[in-house]
Fold this sequence. Notes:
By secondary structure, this protein is mostly helical.
Amino acid sequence: MNGQNELPSVEALAFLGDAVHSLYIRAHLVRRGIPRSGELNRQTQTYITATAQARLAEKCKPYFTELEADVFRRGANHKHLQTPKHTSGADYRAATGLECVLGMHYYLGNYERIDALLSMEGQNDDTED
């Protein structure tokens, strides 16, 4: 891969990255042994909000490659973003940027990099075991 010109649109990357992040979190919670779907759904929602994704983006950004940083910026600065009422514009832009990075890696088959970035989710987080 020699650049972002070969990648899908920002919207497509964010769409894919949102699903990747959600699946990763759901699998993580199931592996923790949570047996009930209601509890799984409740805990999933604490991780997949724009605010939570923005916090994760801040943890990941220092470790981004140049391409990841470029894709993050494209996602975060995309002009067609409409911020939901329940989150700040800054958090929503950061979350979208992170989703684009995750979507890019999934699209390219870089699953180990997804694991490396998402493993930062639990760092300094009281919800981890």
